[in-house]
Amino acid sequence: MINDSWRRRKLTAIAVVFSTIVPSATNAQDPANKLQRPQAQAMRVQQVSPELEKVLVNWEKQSGKIEKLEGSHQRFVYDPTFLVEKRAKGYFYYEAPDKGRIDLEPVPINPNEVSRKKDPNTGEVYKITPDRPEKWVCDGKNITLVEIASKTYEKIPIPPEKQGHNIMEGPLPFLFGMPAEQAKMRYKLTLEANQPNRIQIKAEPLWPVDAQNYKEAQIILNPANYLPTAVKLTAPGGNQETVYVFSSLEVNKKTNPLKFWEEKDPFNPKLAGFKQLQQKVQNAAVPLMPSVIGQPGQQAQANMQKLGFKVTFLRGPAADRPDLVFVVKEQNPPPKSPVKPGQTVTLTLYDEMKTAAADGQ
Questions:
Q1: Which end of the chain is more exposed for a tag (fewer CB within 10 A), N or C?
Q2: Residue 40 pLDDT > 90
Q3: Is 316 helix (H, G, I), strand (E, B) or coil?
Q4: Domains and CATH numbers, the chain
């Protein structure tokens, strides 16, 4: 179908829409590194109910008819650390088997508009702000991440063995309508709603490579055509959320999308006047350090140990909110640095909050 998916932020690579097409979860990682398939999990297959099995099979069949898919979307990023709701809107375009593009632009905010999101502990309402403009383009061989404000872009090559239909091994393959058997092997799936006007599936990653990108995904499908109407991604730390809402979807449209009319080829964007940022690590075979910043300490330790790292802890500054206590503030080596097998990762955690008595001493 589509894919939220390869971006530097969670959905993340062309992330939520094609894999980022987003992310946008928010850990800066090399999308090529995210494509590495953990062979140790290959035979893990979930037993699902007949009802869910039927939904997965129908979804696979309907997705198999899609050669092109395009439409509009809105993106909402909820940041609990700063109590901010970021909004963007745009247009996406997918072409089978492995091409995709998403354009994002800030949404103007009405000064009187109030966010529906509140801090569960304090009741403080989130502040709504426009998100930054950007583009994600995947031409099947490279992923191009374009930052409009800084007029820069990065081009990341996709390993030859991951090109073509192997895009299913990307961060968000369920947006492409992953084959039912693969979906059951890769995710713990829960059918949360199966109604005439709405199907909702929760997908929890079973493979560590997916768990680096999101803790869980909620996918809402239209039962009439099994196209997505919304996707919500929860970050590995369980706090930040990214929501995509899709509309005006068109399947197998014969003409090029009007939104890209100024460019003859939507997968070859105009980049005159933009500066290319050189990747420090060009070889896709060299893995990069994932980010666990923002994750609870024990969860971050488990995630790192699954990847073969040793973990040590340092005590950081006192947390100023209860939900930050023992959460990773910093890590060393930092995210996106080259990985050495078996190396030690040092995690600095927010310490316990200071009590009123301690403040008075």
A1: C
A2: no
A3: strand
A4: 4-276 (2.50.20.10), 297-360 (3.30.10.20)
